[in-house]
Amino acid sequence: MTVRSDTTVALDSRFARELPEMAVPWQATTFDAAHVLVLNEPLAAELGLDSAFLRSADGARLLVGDLLPDGAYPVAQAYAGHQFGGYSPRLGDGRALLLGEIVDVRGDLRDLHLKGSGPTPFSRGGDGFAAVAPMLREYLISEAMHALGVPTTRALAVVATGQAVRRETMLPGAVLARVAGSHLRVGSFQYAAATGDVDLVRRLTAHAIERHHPELVGAHNPGLALLNAVIAAQAELVARWMLVGFVHGVMNTDNMTISGETIDYGPCAFMDAFDAASVYSSIDSGGRYAFGNQPLVAEWNLARFAETLLPTLDDDPDAAITLAQASLETFRTRYNAHWSAGMLAKLGLRPDLDPAAVPPLLADLLDVLQAGGVDHTAFFRALGAAARGNADSVRAMFSDPTAFDAWMLRWASSGPDASAMDDVNPVYIPRNHLVEEALDAAVAGDLAPFETLLDVVASPYRERPGRERYAAPAPPDFGAYQTFCGT
Q1: How do residues 316-341 score in pLDDT, each as one tens digit?
Q2: Is 108 a catalytic residue?
Q3: In Å, how far from its chain's centre is CA 249?
Q4: Residue 231 is part of which domain span?
């Protein structure tokens, strides 16, 4: 690693400084042939970074952790986690590094973090590297989520390393430079709690509050205040996932952020045909993280978070449990409120609709969609045309539209606003067949399909002439879709 003071980037090391027990100083692997494949210039501008510099040879070295500004202190972060329900006491950044924190142009502190930068003490037998396709997938999907208004970590760049990575075959390697409000996770708190050091949990709590909820500084019960804030953030986040048909695929506790941002786009996908049992991850054979299970899994993860905070909530264990349970009981109410409001918006209906009519209207719609197996994204967009009086396209999605017709009469009687529907129902999402097409081309050296798809999903609500194939469902011969974690 080279240290220079003229890289035009200032990186702080607040996490490592305040929580040294959870930060292992480490250096990224040197990649002599590193070069930028994709750079997020709008995000670079938000961070106050010079895109021309980032595209240069020295910029590429910065983005793989080899050339760092004076004072940088890269670390691998320690965390634990429940993975598919089984607890692992020591996970951590097995192929990642926190380069440091950067102050963006709005004055907000954000992490600059690498994936695929080489082995660390947390690698657990893995090689610590990453391949081009999974890193481009995270770039593409996270930018699509950002455009859809879903809180998310974002990709600053994907940098080709010039080195091959061994998986089932040899693949071209890459490093993802990722930006987040922070990389604090439920698993971070699980790791701190497992040490038995209550002071460490208190300091981690204070760090998280100062970072994400400064309005809570000085709260009478900081642990309880943070628990409530994280429950609120995650209830809204998962509701947003459900509204756009996003399947995370691996909702382990180490993949649930304290900030309420979506993180770690491994075996993720946007749902094609509506099905609550949709699973796209090759490793989720039991369907634990199926589309319809995501709210319940989030609630389960938050219970694990609450457990870590118990010693800080009250000196009396029984009183602490009572406080935690009362907080956790708010999750479903919060989630249902966000989801119901979002569904009413997707249906173009007023938020002040008769409260007694809303639950059956929404529940019956889900039944109709499940039975019909219609395309989730295309259905809601076509429903906007039905609100304008042309229901032909949406009715044609059903082999037997009888049940849908009955539901549509009830919906139409409430006076849906078609223009409002167009504002919240996307035309374009990263459709799975198009993602695979773009990634295959990129691995073969052609980035044009990736760049075109990225451009389309970055403006998801505006129909564009000539881009009809990007709004169309997968062809029948695409088959069942599976994704992989990329490690």
Answers
A1: 999 999 999 999 999 999 999 999 99
A2: no
A3: 10
A4: 184-427+471-487
